[in-house]
Structure formats: C-alpha cells, structure tokens
Amino acid sequence: MSEFGSTLPVSGVKSHVLEACRHVVNALRASDNNLDANLTKLLSDLDTHLSTLGNVDTKLVKDTGFSEIKERFKEAKKIILAWEQNQSLILDAGLCEADLFFKSLHDVQTVLTSFKALPSKSSKKEKDVYNQASVVLDIGMLRLEKELSDVLNQYKHHVQPRYLAVSSRGKDIVYDESFVSLDDEVVVEATSQEDDQQILGSNNGELVDLLVVPHIKAIAKAMLACGYDQPFREAFISVRRDALNEYMATLEVERFSCGDVLGMQWEDLNGEMRKWSKVLKIVTQVYLVREKHLCDKILGEFEPSFTVCFVEISKDTILSLLSFGEAVALRSCQPEMLERFLSMYEVSAEILLEVDNLFPHESGVAFHELSKKLADCTITTFLKFKNAIASDESIRAFPGGSIHHLTRYVMNYLKLLPEYKDALNTLLENLQVDDTIPEKTGQDILPSTFSPMARHLRSIVTTLESTLERKAQLYADESLKYIFLMNNYHYMVQKVKTSELKHFFGDEWIRKHIASYQHNVTDYERTTWSSVLSLLKDNNKDSVATVRERCRLFCLAFDDVYKNQTRWSVPDPELRDDLHISTSVKVVQSYRGFLGRHATRIGEKYIRYSCEDIESLLLDLFECLPSPRSLRSSRSKR
C-alpha cells in the first residue's frame, strides 16, 4: 500500500511543484536586474536541475524500453480488470492481494506519466498503450471509489447515545398573567454536570473500525496521487455525512426553517430549545471532534482535501443548528424563555473553544456571533422577567390570603437559576442594580453572596416584595392582609433556605425575612384578638348581668373570627401549627381565666363554649374550609 509515495514520476502534485519552482525562479530573475552574482549562479543551477527532473520520465521510457513497459502494463491491466466484476471487498482478499492491486495501479500511472514526458510524435503502438492505460486507470479508480464507500459503510460504528436524554417531555414553564405555570411540583431537569458525564460517557469509541483505517488511507493516497481528488472527496463525504445524519436522527433532531421556529407555539419551542442545547453540546464536543480525528488519520497529510472533507461532512448539520439558534434569537424575548435562553447561551459560550478548533474559518465566526445574540436575548429576557413582576397588577385580593401564584412562580423560577451561575455572573456583571444588602466581611460570608447574580436575584425578590405589599392593600380585612404577607414571606424564606439560593441571598437576608414574617404574625394576633380578648377583662365591681354580657359578646366575636378565618389559608403545616399554638395559648388561657373567676356567677346555661370547645375550634382556623362546621355542635347546653 506504499506504492503511491514520493517516488511517483512527474504527475499530479509533483508536476505542479516543478512548475511552481520554475515560476519562482523566473520571478526572481525578473524582479531585479542587479542580482548578486552568487544568487544569479544559484538560480541558474536551480533552473538546470528542474529541467533535469522534468526529463527523468523520458529517460525512464528510453532506458526501460517500450516493450518492457508494455509488458508491465499488461500484467497490471489484468489484475485491475479482474476486480472490475468482483463485488467483494479488496480488503477481505488479504493484505497481499490489496498490495498487488495498489501496485498495479501504480504501474498503470507510471505508464501514463512516462508517455506524457515523451515528444508529441509517438508511434501508434505507443499511443494505443497510452489510451488503454487511461481507460484502465479510470476503471481502477471507479473500483477504489466503490471500495471506499463499501468499507466506510460496513465498518462504521453506529454510535448510540444511550445515556443522553434529549426528549422534550417534561413540565414546561409557561408565562401568563396569572403566573400559575410554575409551582412546587415542577419537574427540574438533571444538572448540566450530570448531562456532561452522560454525554461524554456515551461516546467513548471510534466512528470507524481502526483496523480498516490503513486501507482507507491507501485508497486516499492512490486516488489523490492519480488526480482523482474530486471522486474521492465526493464518496468519502457522502458516506460520512450520511453517518452524521443517522446520528442526528438517533437524537430525534428535526430541521426547522426560520418560519417554523417563529411560528412555533411556546410549548413545542420550549422542548426544541432544551433539545438544541444538549444536541449542540454533544455534536460539537464529542461527535465532530471524533469525525475530525478520523479525517485527520486518513487525510491529514493531504491538504486541502482534509479541510474540505471535514467541512462538507459537517456543514449541513452545523448550518441547521446555527439557523435554529438564529431564528430563536429573532423571537420576542418573553419571561418564560429566560431559562431556555440561559441554557442556549451557556452552551454556545462553552463550545466556542471546540468550535474554533473544529472550524477556524466562517462557521467558527458564525458561532461567536450567535453566542453574542443569545447573550443579548438572555439579558433582555431577564429584565423583562423582572419588569413583569413589577407590573403585575391585580384588581382583586388573592383568595384566603394564601401564597400568591406570583410568589410561587418567581421563587421556583429563581431556584432554577443557580445552575447557570457562571453564565449569569458574566452577563450581569456590567448591569447596574439596586441591592440594599450591605456588604459584610467575615468567615461565614460566602463570596457568591456579593456576585452579580446574587445582587440581581435579591433585587428581583425586592421587586416581588413591593408587588406583594401592593396586593396586600386589596384586603378589606386588616388581619387577612397580615396572613397574606406572612404566608408569602415565609414561602420565600423556605425556598431560599432549602435550595442553592441560600448561597446567593446570604444569612443576613434570611434573618431579615424571618423577622418580617414573624412581625406579620404579631400584627395578625394583635389585629384579630386584641378586641376579642378585651371583652374578657373585668373587675370585681361588674354585675352579674355585665359579666354575662361580656361572655355573650366574646362568643359572638369568636364566632365571627371562626367563620372568617376557617376560610383563610396557611398552606405550610408547621407555620399553621405554630399559629394554632400561639393563638390557643393566648385565647384559651384568657377564656379559662375568665370562666375561673365568673363561671358560678354566669351560670352554666349562659356559657356557650367550654375551654375545650375553644381549643378544638381554633384548630380549624386557616384550613381553607369550604364552609365552617356548625358551631352549635360545639356549644354546651344553655
């Protein structure tokens, strides 16, 4: 398989080299009439040497003799034509047979290049041998072209990314005015690090069996040396491009036009954007790296064929991925697209080094431009997300004082962002933001607390708090306003404390907001129970009628609280239990003291509730009951 080496007669590459050298010599001579004598002699000697090289093949024909060359050609022709009808692989015939085939091709090429060096007035016999050699060489090259395609197809490895989930299934994030699409049950995807391990771990083999690479390389040498560059490239590119398309099909990648992307519904686009991020990563960091490695093994010493083949193999796939990203960047940047844009930007920025190594020219530049567009879209979407929170206006109070959809949406969305901390810190570094958290120093303060991302996340929550304060004013009942604020502040604190957000918000933020919702609890208890419990305060001068009236009024006031606040909601069970305990301690203790002092004066038939009744009924508060249970069932006999 080494016949087509540097010892080839003047043809193809070698003839071009000789012509180039002569051109350089002539150009130097014409460039300056005052050349140094030594340089003039050197150029003259070089010109003579080049002329000698050009005459080698003429000498070869004369020294060898026409009859001997004709005999060598007949043997080579016989071997080549024998493989014309043989459909089996030359590779399978064994190394000796393959070497014999390549040697025969070399002999035919030698005949052709030798006769090209003869004077134009050749004999009819010589011309006939020349014409036959041309036909035989064509036949041999067609056989090699078929061999190339067959070997590449039969010995390619079918790469299956078994551990990479690229399905678009899953709960999608959808933005609407009610902010109801993202709650505590949202399915969070695996982290990027886990995906990387799956991607890299799923493609640890070669794209073509290494045992056949020397044979393919021998085909490349033979076809390129004989001037059949184009047929080789077309066959090689066709098979390897089909293999890449087959691989893309295993990733369930569809090709969309710009119009398709712009007209796509968000639910479908969300899945395709998620898939694009993963596919782009595996294609550029794994598959194409291996494809270029294969091209380098076979064509590394043959430029420009090496570059041309790799670029043509990957061009359609790369253009498809680029066009999808470009089309997405043209869409309106809506809040629900933030995470998807972050993911696409992060991947596009991460692969730039690989892309520069793979495509040092146009395609690499296109990826850099796409990454910049995705960065701009991400920043715009981030700001729109914050503005959507600030501009959310309600005309009705949120039912039951529960956790607002806006609060759930924002906090669960923020929980997704630490995965993109590097990208966000880069994008937000030069974006000014108001952040009221003072910078502190100390061993317990993490640097991430004061990163650009941390400042912006806290700013978003500050915007959320302002919006919640406005919504709280919609409640006519002062007590319910405090329950609403307590629920929402408590929810924000729990989301931060139990997630990666704690590294960005910091302990001081957590302490401050715990104090906020605890203050809401105090305000609730004061607003709700102060006037009710004031009815149980008395002195020894009160008459029996006055005491009985106080007891009656207390029961009526308690009934009102019960009927209202059983419809209210405190979703967190621990917070609800704490409220029950705190309220029970105050109310039951005051009521027990009142009955202890006046039960005999009031009389049993005028006492509607026992202390146990009050304690039991208080447990119904904040349960968001559709209707309160009958209070009569809990009353003592009059």
TrEMBL record:
Region forming the signal peptide: none
Coiled coil regions, renumbered to chain: none
One Gene Ontology term from the biological process aspect of the record: exocytosis
Domain Exocyst complex subunit Exo70 C-terminal, first and last residues per copy: 275-620
Keyword terms: Exocytosis, Protein transport, Transport
Family: Belongs to the EXO70 family.
Function: Component of the exocyst complex.
Entries under PANTHER family matching the protein: EXOCYST COMPLEX COMPONENT EXO70E2, EXOCYST COMPLEX PROTEIN EXO70
Name the record gives this protein: Exocyst subunit Exo70 family protein
Natural source organism: Eruca vesicaria subsp. sativa
